[in-house]
Amino acid sequence: MGTFYQEVKSNVWCLKLGTELTKSKKEGKCVCVENWFGLDCGIPAAAWKSGFLQEGKNSNVEIRRRRKPRRIIVLYAVDDQSDLLEINIHNAFLFIDVVLTIEGKDHDPSVLNLVKDGYLAEYQNKIIPIQLNRSYVVEKEDQWSIFMLTELWKVVWKRLSDFRPDDIFLFSHVSSVISKDVVLFLKLYDGYPEPFFFELRPLLFKFWRQMKSNSTNAKFVPFKPRGCTFQYIASLCDYEVSNFFSNSCYNDLEHKKHFEKNYWSLAGWVIGNSFTPSGWQCNLCCENECIKQNINRYRKNGSTSLPLRYLLGNTSVMEHFIEKSDLFNSKDLFFEVVPNSDPFLAPSIVLSNRRYSHLID
């Protein structure tokens, strides 16, 4: 844990990422930087302001610092990695232990071949790319993601071993970037409920273009990333990740009662909200030429050619934007500009690396 914490006074340890260390040493206690909370400044805003912690007002919970960091294994469904796979891996590489990706056989460029050619060479010790031997196309993005991640889970059993009960598995789509602050919190603490879901900021093309809608049917993040411990999948869901995605194991009262009797209590947890998101859902966030190519492909082949099929009522978001003369102002779909001053504008790697400047300019 010494990698993540620093002692500012005898037996007073503060999380380095969330602490103003100079002030903390002077005052002999942990002084948190903005949007970090808790006695050791280890709770990020998305967790702190969630319905579970209620900004510290929920007296029925106890968040405890672990003796050792737990392992984090992330599974990504990939259908248009553009810059986002790199951003995901750069974003939280120090805090995750294994990254597995899965793609269809016709995916081009193939992540598998890119890795063979040296793609993300400095991170490859943690990356396992898998290519499915067939393609799977559906109209709804959430169904596609669930299918791909279920197939990837089957591979996990063949490629990984030595699972521990407290290992955390995160299931995500490559266009979703979970905040590294939240990932670090999950790694270092106990006491939070599972399964957990991530409330992401829905974006289109750029990290400052947040999608909004007046429609109650709008669904901007069709597949929300979710996570749980290995114990949850093994004991409650009978090792079947499909049961986890459908929530059938969580809703099985007998299973749930048996699990809580032998392990710990269960409660669904949504991390983050619209003001303090736990990450970003960035659809078609790539270079302008990449965006044009995808739109042209959409016009030619229909919505199934797009990386994501968001639904706005019965119309996909891309249909809506292509058909409207005024892309930014319509009665049921519009953009809200995220200001540069927003503390959750974009992942730190995007803000600090000029390679990704096109995503925030």
Question: Would you tell me the structural class of the helices and strands?
Answer: alpha/beta
- Strand arrangement, major sheet: 8-7-6-9-15-12-16
CATH class of the largest domain: Alpha Beta
Q: Can you give the mean pLDDT? A: 87
The CATH architecture category of the largest domain equals: Alpha-Beta Complex
Separation of the first and last Cα atoms: 37 Å
Q: Note the overall shape.
A: globular
The domain tally reads: 2
**CATH topology assignment of the largest domain:** Spore Coat Polysaccharide Biosynthesis Protein SpsA, Chain A
Helix content: 25-40%
The total of beta strands comes to 20
Taking pLDDT < 50 over at least 5 consecutive residues as the criterion, the unreliable ranges are: 303-315, 324-329
- Total of helices: 13
Largest sheet: 7 strands, mixed
Please report which band the strand proportion falls in: under 5%, 5-15%, 15-25%, 25-35%, 35-45% or over 45%: 15-25%
- Rg is 21 Å
Organism: Araneus ventricosus
GO molecular function: beta-1,4-mannosylglycoprotein 4-beta-N-acetylglucosaminyltransferase activity
InterPro entries: Glyco_trans_17 (IPR006813)
Protein name: Beta-1,4-mannosyl-glycoprotein 4-beta-N-acetylglucosaminyltransferase
